[in-house]
Amino acid sequence: MPSQKALIRRPSPRLAEGLVTYIEREPVDAELAMRQWEAYVEALAAHGWETIEVDPEDDCPDSVFVEDTVVVFRNVALIARPGAESRREETAGVEEAVARLGCSVNWVWEPGTLEGGDVLKIGDTVYVGRGGRTNAAGIQQLRAAFEPLGARVVAVPVSKVLHLKSAVTALPDGTVIGHEPLVDTPSLFPRFLSVPEESGAHVVQLGGGKLLMAASAPKTAELFADLGHEPVLVDISEFEKLEGCVTCLSVRVRDLYA
Ligand SMILES: NC(=O)NCCC[C@H](N)C(=O)O
């Protein structure tokens, strides 16, 4: 039985102070956010994922977006160096968690910056977004960490959204999906499918053709169902107000030594 683990991190009591960059700030309902986070974690567990809680980081408003703090390829965890300075304290707890999982740990160093939301893995291809949070030095360090392990690192520009994975993610067959007005260069991807909603671009592959998606993308969910996938919808409205999406609330780790 293949191992499927997902790191998650409980929302900080200061969640409402999280960063917003490309959208207007809206008030966040902290209690609703907690219920939505619990439902998200339950959805992962219900589909066979063992969820592992990283120690909370209550002083960091954005710490629930745990995906940004680390990138795992094979058995190596590359600890990010967030482009957002207010997020740099978040990495210590994640470092401990991935070390406990048995990962070999590596780090992005100054002057590099890199956030996990900018890294999209499709098989051995690792797309990395050069945008507001990840710089050229960060990309070079990602190459140095993962190319010796067999990764093919492809750098892509990101100028319209926060992270690469705010613009694109992938279906289980490797097709890259994105809401075209927000994707800098769709032609960089061998197979690209445009979706009707911004949040429809974000899916977490749960396995068995199931796709975890935001309830705010019903038309895209219909499109995916029509293509033979099984959307599983979760309401993450309070996290979307902080530019979060379904991908950034967990770090999925499969078969570390495969
Ligand atoms: N990977 C992601 O999409 N992360 C979302 C991070 C949102 C957070 N408010 C931030 O600006 O860093």
Automatic annotation (TrEMBL):
<protein>
    <submittedName>
        <fullName>N(G),N(G)-dimethylarginine dimethylaminohydrolase</fullName>
    </submittedName>
</protein>
<keyword id="KW-0378">Hydrolase</keyword>
<dbReference type="InterPro" id="IPR033199">
    <property type="entry name" value="DDAH-like"/>
</dbReference>
<comment type="similarity">
    <text>Belongs to the DDAH family.</text>
</comment>
<dbReference type="Pfam" id="PF02274">
    <property type="entry name" value="ADI"/>
</dbReference>
